[in-house]
Amino acid sequence: MLFGAEHVRKYLETDGQEGHEWQGTTAALLTNRGRRSGKPHITPLIYQPYGDKYLVVASKGGSPTPPEWYLNLQANPDAELQILGERFKVRAHTATPDEKPDMWRVMTAAWPAYDEYQTKTDREIPVVVLERV
């Protein structure tokens, strides 16, 4: 996560006026349900638009294990995305091998550290595609 609970709180309170711009890139809030608990979780994530879709990266800083939000999306791909004051429903899928190269370039242009994160782990870091439903 980026700033964790404080980032989420400020983003929600200000409709993204605080928290959308983050360290030279942009952040959105992803709300999805826990795969075991069923409870909603809100996670700030770096995102980029990609045509009529949105991209996020399940990097966890190059950890050998994927982030919880990604595991939750694998169990239930229906979620909500908030960009600034706009909230909308999305369905997630992991970028296919054909989709990923261009999408990875888009995301590393937004956050170059993703390339470094990939060198830290044997796990292939996924790009997640979020489509409006």
Automatic annotation (TrEMBL):
<dbReference type="GO" id="GO:0016491">
    <property type="term" value="F:oxidoreductase activity"/>
</dbReference>
<dbReference type="GO" id="GO:0070967">
    <property type="term" value="F:coenzyme F420 binding"/>
</dbReference>
<dbReference type="GO" id="GO:0005886">
    <property type="term" value="C:plasma membrane"/>
</dbReference>
<protein>
    <submittedName>
        <fullName>Nitroreductase</fullName>
    </submittedName>
</protein>
<dbReference type="Pfam" id="PF04075">
    <property type="entry name" value="F420H2_quin_red"/>
</dbReference>
<comment type="similarity">
    <text>Belongs to the F420H(2)-dependent quinone reductase family.</text>
</comment>
<dbReference type="InterPro" id="IPR012349">
    <property type="entry name" value="Split_barrel_FMN-bd"/>
</dbReference>
<dbReference type="InterPro" id="IPR004378">
    <property type="entry name" value="F420H2_quin_Rdtase"/>
</dbReference>
